[in-house]
Each structure stands twice: as C-alpha cells, then as structure tokens.
Amino acid sequence: MADLTPSQATPGLHVSKPSPDAPATGSAVCHCGASATASGDAQVRLLVQGWEANHSSAHAKGGSK
Q: Is 48 a residue whose pLDDT tops 60?
C-alpha cells in the first residue's frame, strides 16, 4: 500500500482508524504551509472540521487564512 501521509509535496488530510475499538489518528498538511496531527476520535473529528473550514479545496492556493 502507498504511503498516504500528507506532506508539503502531497498536501491533504489522512485519517486512520484500524478497528472500531482503536483510537483514530489524523494528519493534515496544506499547500499554504499549515500542518497538524491529532490522536483520539474527538481530536481527529476537530482536525477534520478545521481542515474543511480552513484548508479544503475551497482554500485558494497561495492565499492565507
């Protein structure tokens, strides 16, 4: 399987939850330079919400937020 971890060269959001009982983990890297990681279901949920609000495809390349 390919490495799906986002980087500056391949920005994006990656979330993993290997089983229903395991805590979720997540990482995000934006083309604007912002990055974040989270561990635990609640924290990963917040990471996803923040990504969608500030760094998703609606985020203009080269712009700052």
A: yes
